[in-house]
């Protein structure tokens, strides 16, 4: 028995010695603080959708967050979608030393000096140019030498059917969904709605075409309004008050007996009936569509006529405040920097793909898969030679942008060569793709930094040589940017703007999304 134990222990020891150290130290300049923080104030009582700078979408259902000091939760979010972002943040695509292929990373947490807890799952949608079936969700574990990706969980094969009681804002009722019955919805519409509402034109009440968009997809508030509009009006809800005033202070009859399923069936009927007859395509992503387009025409006219930014802000201030009166619920100001658009044009539609996951805890997350399981990957041998000095501490990275691979190497066994997985230089690699070796060094005795990089096309056996030059941290950042690491996402340079111009920009984007609809409706109504 003792011999068997010793034999097993020896085999385990030998197996562990075949791989390089899993988490070598990183240069101090490579750390997650290099990623810009995006801060958001969330009204916990309403459904919220956050559109992040890098294209990630975060859906937060009503009452999914809990705070200790009221109904507003402040969240901090960081994205690492491009390989350049991952590199500068020191976010390696490795799990306990094994190379991974990433689909994008995200950090979400309560902002500093705030306490927020998650009561219901938050949905994260990370953009990608294509989806890979074998991807999994890894949790980031902060260790002494960086973040290690652990506990892989399979991604859902498809999004679950949403609970009608908590359909997230930004999610239209899908008429094709098996969960909803448009035929039942038609019967309910004729029994309860048709005497006051038409789909396409205003009668006693507003036209029901695009009603979900006008309510900003806030199903919690809209369902509440349908069951008892007077109660929501009395609570001070801004858009319901505006409707009340617009229709001669005549409250909509209450329908307390309609279930969530009933209401969803009605909306599925509206969607189904509108699709073949609609003359105007309404933008699905519009944050708010008013019952008339007067607000759009006013803002759009100003944006096209005024050339001075300060005067534009001053003139638009009163209109912006009036516009906020028409929004559904409290206005949440996005604190991230964006570019001001003054010449509003119809946005071009670009199809996007997303990895969609639900999270129940704050922290780092990574969409990843083991590189050995990826397509077009073969076991290969790759070594790197660097003429380094005794006073240098060097980190060597293998970067493959097409597969979003960023692995850090280490010394091979009994050698001064670097490798990236096994101690003999073996590593799984996609074949025939462009890759980079990037080395960043620090002087052990002074603040001097060193940098070197080279590109190559991957094959089954390669030996790369690299020379390092003394540089500054700014120089390293410029050199990395100069590589123009090919990624499907375009880098956008954004300048900081003040909060007033920021609020105006958000409203301009909402107005921009209304352009096609308003222009079309103006033509139809002539």
Keywords:
signal; disordered C terminus; Cytochrome Bc1 Complex, Chain D, domain 2; seven-stranded antiparallel sheet; 526 residues; alpha+beta; elongated; disordered N terminus; 27% strand; five-stranded antiparallel sheet; Chondroitinase Ac, Chain A, domain 3
Topology, please?
Elements: H1 2-16, E1 38-43, E2 48-51, E3 57-60, E4 65-67, E5 72-80, H2 83-88, E6 94-95, E7 98-110, E8 116-118, E9 122-128, E10 136-143, E11 146-154, H3 182-192, H4 211-214, H5 219-227, H6 229-234, H7 238-246, H8 260-274, H9 294-305, H10 309-325, E12 353-359, E13 363-370, E14 377-386, E15 392-400, E16 405-408, E17 410-411, E18 418-419, E19 426-430, E20 434-443, E21 449-457, E22 461-466, E23 469-471, H11 473-482, H12 499-524
Parallel strand pairs: 14-22
Antiparallel strand pairs: 1-5, 2-3, 3-9, 4-8, 5-7, 6-7, 7-13, 9-12, 10-11, 10-13, 14-19, 15-16, 15-20, 17-18, 20-21, 21-23
Helix pairs in contact: 3-8, 9-10, 9-12, 10-12
Organism: Chitinophaga ginsengisoli
GO molecular function: electron transfer activity; heme binding; metal ion binding
Signal peptide: 1-21
Question: What would you note in describing this structure?
Answer:
This protein has 526 residues and is an alpha+beta fold. Among the domains are: 145 residues, Chondroitinase Ac, Chain A, domain 3, CATH 2.60.220; 97 residues, Orthogonal Bundle (Cytochrome Bc1 Complex, Chain D, domain 2). Helices cover 27% and strands 27% of the residues. Strands 1, 5, 6, 7, 10, 11 and 13 form a 7-stranded antiparallel β-sheet that branches. Strands 16-15-20-21-23 form a 5-stranded antiparallel β-sheet. It has a 4-stranded antiparallel β-sheet with strand order 2-3-9-12, with no helix packed on it. The termini are far apart. 35% of the residues are buried. It holds the Pfam family Cytochrom_C. One of its GO terms (molecular function) is electron transfer activity. It comes from Chitinophaga ginsengisoli. Keywords: Electron transport, Heme, Iron, Metal-binding, Signal, Transport.
């Amino acid at each position: 028995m003792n011999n068997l134990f010793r034999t097993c222990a020896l085999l385990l020891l030998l197996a562990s010695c075949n791989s390089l150290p899993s988490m070598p130290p990183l240069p101090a300049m490579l750390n997650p603080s290099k990623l810009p923080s995006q801060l958001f104030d969330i009204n916990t009582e309403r459904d919220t959708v956050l559109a992040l700078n890098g294209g990630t979408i975060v859906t937060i259902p009503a009452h999914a967050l809990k705070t200790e000091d009221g109904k507003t939760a402040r969240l901090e979010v960081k994205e690492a979608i491009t390989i350049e972002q991952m590199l500068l943040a020191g976010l390696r695509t490795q799990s306990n030393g094994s190379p991974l292929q990433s689909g994008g990373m995200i950090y979400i947490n309560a902002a500093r000096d705030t306490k927020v807890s998650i009561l219901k799952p938050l949905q994260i949608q990370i953009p990608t140019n294509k989806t890979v079936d074998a991807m999994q969700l890894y949790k980031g574990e902060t260790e002494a030498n960086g973040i290690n990706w652990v506990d892989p969980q399979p991604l859902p094969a498809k999004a679950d059917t949403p609970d009608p009681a908590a359909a997230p804002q930004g999610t239209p009722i899908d008429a094709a969904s098996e969960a909803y019955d448009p035929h039942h919805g038609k019967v309910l519409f004729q029994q309860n709605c048709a005497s006051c509402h038409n789909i396409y034109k205003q009668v006693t009440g507003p036209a029901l075409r695009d009603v979900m968009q006008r309510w900003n997809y806030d199903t919690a508030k809209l369902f509440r309004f349908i069951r008892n509009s007077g109660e929501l009006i009395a609570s001070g809800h801004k858009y319901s008050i505006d409707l009340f005033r617009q229709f001669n202070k005549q409250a909509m009859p209450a329908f307390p007996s309609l279930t969530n399923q009933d209401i969803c069936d009605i909306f599925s009927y509206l969607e189904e009936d509108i699709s073949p007859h609609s003359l105007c395509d309404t933008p699905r992503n519009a944050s708010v569509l008013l019952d008339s387009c007067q607000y759009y025409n006013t803002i759009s006219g100003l944006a096209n006529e005024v050339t001075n930014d300060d005067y534009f802000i001053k003139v638009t201030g009163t209109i912006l405040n009036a516009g906020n009166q028409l929004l559904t619920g409290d206005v949440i100001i996005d604190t991230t920097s964006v570019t001001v658009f003054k010449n509003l044009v119809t946005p071009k539609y670009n199809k996007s793909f997303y990895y969609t996951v639900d999270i129940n805890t704050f922290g780092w997350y990574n969409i990843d898969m083991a590189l050995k399981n990826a397509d077009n990957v073969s076991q290969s041998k790759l070594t790197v030679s660097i003429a380094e000095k005794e006073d240098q501490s060097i980190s060597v990275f293998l970067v493959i942008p097409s597969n979003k691979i960023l692995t850090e190497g280490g010394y091979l066994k009994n050698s001064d060569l670097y490798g990236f997985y096994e101690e003999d230089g073996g590593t799984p690699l996609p074949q025939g793709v462009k890759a980079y070796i990037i080395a960043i060094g620090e002087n052990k005795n002074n603040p001097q930094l060193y940098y070197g990089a080279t590109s190559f096309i991957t094959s089954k056996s390669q030996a790369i040589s690299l020379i390092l030059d003394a540089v500054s941290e700014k120089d390293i950042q410029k050199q990395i940017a100069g590589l123009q690491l090919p990624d499907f996402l375009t880098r956008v340079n954004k300048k900081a703007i003040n909060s007033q111009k920021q609020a105006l920009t958000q409203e301009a984007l909402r107005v921009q999304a209304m352009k096609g609809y308003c222009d079309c409706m103006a033509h139809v109504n002539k």
